[in-house]
């Protein structure tokens, strides 16, 4: 509902047609001008929103359990793979190819979760922040560049197609 009031040096009483309070609105101010305010009922909590958030939290917890079950080496390998996938997505976006934009967020969040679990393990081992950063720099330098899994899968599919065509022509 919308109410409109003109303020002056005297008090103004406004009685809207439908209100959510039983008494009329009384305001006293030195404001000389026009005041527009909205009177809205309190927002109702929608059940569907809470159900969705509960399901998403359950998925996140499940994913964290899955990540925590992996060894640190497996986590490092998966981080490298996911970062390669992110690079491929950026290339697809720059080449104006079709891709799912939601994959960016999903992969970034997964990488962040893995790095969080990795750091939790370092804290449990008593490794400080400075030492952790140093180890992280050494780890990044030791990474051997390799194609991401999606590119390998695409290359395998192309090779299988070529083999199929050559077998069909022979």
Q: What is the element layout, followed by pairings?
A:
Blueprint: E1 2-7, E2 12-14, E3 25-27, E4 33-38, H1 47-68, H2 72-94, H3 102-124, H4 129-142, H5 149-169
> What share of the residues lie within helices?
55-70%
Q: What letter string, H or E per element, gives the SSE order?
A: EEEEHHHHH
Low-confidence stretches: 18-23
Strand order of the largest sheet: 1-4
Distance between the termini: 78 Å
Number of separate strands: 4
By DSSP (H or I, 4+ residues per run), the number of helices equals 5
Strand content: 5-15%
Structural class: mainly alpha
Q: If you average the pLDDT, what whole number results?
A: 78
Sheet with the most strands, sense and barrel status: 2 strands, antiparallel
Dominant shape: extended
**Rg computed from alpha carbons, rounded to a whole number of angstroms:** 30 Å
């Amino acid at each position: 509902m919308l109410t409109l009031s003109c303020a002056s040096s005297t008090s103004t009483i406004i009685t809207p047609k439908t209100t959510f309070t039983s008494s009329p609105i009384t305001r006293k101010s030195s404001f000389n001008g026009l005041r527009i305010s909205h009177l809205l009922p309190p927002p109702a909590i929608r059940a569907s929103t809470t159900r969705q958030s509960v399901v998403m939290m359950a998925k996140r917890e499940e994913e964290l359990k899955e990540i925590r079950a992996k060894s640190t080496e497996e986590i490092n390998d998966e981080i490298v793979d996911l970062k390669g996938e992110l690079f491929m997505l950026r290339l697809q976006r720059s080449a104006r190819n079709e891709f799912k934009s939601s994959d960016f967020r999903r992969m970034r969040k997964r990488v962040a979760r893995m790095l969080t679990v990795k750091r939790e393990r370092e804290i449990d081992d008593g490794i400080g922040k400075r030492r952790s950063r140093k180890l992280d720099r050494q780890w990044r330098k030791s990474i051997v560049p390799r194609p991401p899994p999606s590119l390998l899968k695409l290359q395998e599919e192309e090779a299988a197609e070529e083999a199929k065509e050559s077998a069909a022509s022979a």
